[in-house]
Amino acid sequence: MRNVYLLGVTVGLAICLIVPIASADVTINRATKYQSIEGFGFFGAADAWRSQATVLNTTWSQMVIDDLGITMWRNEYYPTATADAPQDTQWDAQKPVVQSLYAAANASRAPLKTVLSVWSPPADYKCVVTTNGIPDWGTCLTPLLRPTDTTGGNILDPAMVNSFADWLVAGLQMYKDIGVDVYGLSMQSEPMLWQGSPNSCFYGQEQYAQHLSEVGPIVKASFPNVRLFGPENMLGIECDVGTNGTDFDPDSSYTAAIMNNAGALSAIDKFAVHGYVDGFTPMTTSNLVALSTSYRTATASTNKSLWMTETSGYNHTWTGGPCTSNAISTCSGAFDLAQAIYAGLYYGHMTAWLYRQGSAGTTPADLNELDLMAGPDNPGKNYYVSKQYYRYIRPGAQMVDAKSSDSSVLAVAFDNTQMGALTIVAINTGTAATPLTLAGNNLPSSYKAIRTSASENAVDLGTVSAGSITLPPSSITTLVSGNYLESQVPATDAGAGSGAAGSGGGTSSAGSSGCSCNVNGGTFSSDSRAAFTLAGLGALVALRRLRRQSAHGRRCPS
Q: What residues pair up with 400 in beta bridges, in sequence order?
C-alpha cells in the first residue's frame, strides 16, 4: 500500500500533520484468464421502431459504432403485419437501418454482431388457451381458436412448432440476403410474461425447453452457425430461492428446465437473462453480484457462456431519483449502471451485455431510463457510462484476474492479445479521491485514461503514468494500453469476424411446462416499460410455492 502525505497549516501556527491517504492496490494476474467478450450493445434504431420517419440516421449509425463502440446489436423479428395484428415496423423499414449500421461497422472494421429476439410468433401459429389459470394454462382451447393479434399472451400451438421453426429460418434468410449472418437467435423474449402490449407469447418452463429441443435442429439445419440463446427470463426470477432469495432455482426456472432436457441443452448455445426483478426494476449491485454468481455457478457444468440481453431502469442522473417516464417511481442512476456492468462481467462472467433501447426520441426531453441516447445529438449519462466499457473492451478480450484491496474500488481487467491491448475499468464508489496502485507482472508503465463522473462525460485525460493515477470519488475510469480500434490493427489480427457480412467475432471460451407469470390485469405500454405492472407477480410467487410442494414437483400448476 502506498501512502500520500498532506501538509496541514493552522492559523498563526504551522504544524506538520502526517495524514496518510491509503491507496487502492489492484493486483492483476494476466496469466489467469476467464471469459472472452463477444460484444456490448443495445436494441433498436436511431428512434423507436414505431417512429418510422426517424429510425434511419447515418450520423447516428456512425456515432454508435465509432464513438460508443457497440459490437453487438439486438433487434426484434416481427411477424408480418395484418389488419388485426399491426406491428411497430416491418422488414422494409428495418433493412436500411441494418445496412447503415453495417456500412459504418465495415468502414471501421468493427466486428458487429446481430442478434434477434422474438416477442411473438405470428398469430396463425398461436392458440387461445383453455383457461387463463390452473390447471390448463398452456393447453389450446377445444375447439381450436386462433388469436387475431400477436399481443395478449396466449401460446404457441404445439402442432405449429415446425411452421414456427420455418418462420425463424425465413427471418435469418432475410438478413443473409443482404450480406448479414445473424450471430444469435432467441425464440422468445421473456417467455414468462403474458402482457397486453407489446407482442408476447407465454411458455411454461418445460414447454419452453421442449419447443426449443424441437425448433433447434430445424434452425441449425439451415443455419448451423447461428447461436441459439435463451431463455431471456428475468435473472431475479431465475435465481429467487434460498435464505436471501438470490440462489438459483433448480425446480422452477427456465434455465433448469433447459438443463433437464437433453435436446434443449444440446440446442441452446448461450444462456441469456434480463437484468430485472419484476419486468422493469433493475437489481441493486449487491443483488446482481449474488444473482450473477448463483447463475454462473449453477450453469458452469454446461460450459455455455452467459449473456445479458436486456436491462434498463437507470435514469440519466448520476445517483438516481424519480423515473423520467414515471415520476412516482424511483430509478437508479447512471453510476449504478456502471456498477451493474462491472458486476455482470466480474461475477457473472458475462460475455455480452445489451441495454434495453439504444436510442429513442430526438430531443433531450426524450431521454429516459429505457435508453442510452435520444438520437445523435443527445447522448445521455447512460451513454457515457456504457462507453467506458463498450469502446475500450473489444470482442476477443479475455477477463483476467484482478483483485482490489479497497472494497470501495471495483476493478475489472481485460487482456486482448489479438489487438495488443490491456484495459482496466476502475470504479471509485467512495466519497474521497483514492490513489490507484497497479501491481502485477508485465503491466504497462502508462495508460490512456478516460473518465465519467457526475460532472464529466467520457473525458479523455490523455496519457497517465501507472504510478500517478488517482480515482475521484463517485467516478468510473477506464485505463487502456495498446490498441482498441480495429481499423488500426493489421487485418489478420483485428479479431475474428470483422468481414463484410458482419457476423462478427468468435465465440467465447467457452440449460417442462412450468409455473407461469400471469400479468393479466397489468398494463404494458409499448411506449414505456415503466407503464408495465406485474399485477400477477404475487400470484406467480404463490403458484411457484404450490409447484414446489406438488408431489409431481416439475408440473406447472398453470
A: 33, 413
The dihedral over CA atoms of 361, 367, 369, 375, expressed in degrees to the nearest 10, equals 50
Question: Hey, what's the cell of 410?
Answer: 471495483
Q: What distance in Å separates the CA atoms of residue 406 and residue 369, rounded to the nearest whole number? A: 30
In terms of C-beta density within 10 A (0-12 exposed, 13-18 middle, 19 or more buried), how is residue 485 classed?
Answer: middle
Residue 388 has pLDDT above 50, yes or no: yes
Q: Give the DSSP H/E element, type plus range, for residue 73.
A: strand 72-76
Which among 260, 211, 252, 247 is positioned nearest to 233, based on CA atoms? 252
pLDDT of residue 397 exceeding 60? yes
- What is the model's pLDDT at position 82? 95
The CATH classification number of 34-392+508-549 equals: 3.20.20.80
pLDDT in tens, 478-505: 999 999 999 988 876 554 444 444 433 3
By C-alpha distance, which of 408, 414, 412 is closest to 434? 408
C-alpha 261/C-alpha 490 separation (Å) is: 44
For residue 14, give every residue at least 6 positions away whose Cβ sits within 8 Å of its Cβ, in sequence order, or none: none
In whole angstroms, what is the distance from residue 536 CA to residue 549 CA? Answer: 20
**Has residue 149 got a pLDDT over 50?**
yes
Question: 3-class secondary structure for 497-552?
Answer: CCCCCCCCCCCCCCCCCCCCEECECECCECCEHHHCCCCCHHHHHHHHHHHHHCCC
Cα–Cα distance measured from residue 337 to residue 348, given in angstroms and rounded to the nearest whole number: 15
For residues 189 and 205, give the distance between their C-alpha atoms in angstroms, rounded to a whole number. Answer: 13
Q: Is the pLDDT of residue 406 over 80?
A: yes
**Amino acid letter for position 12:** G
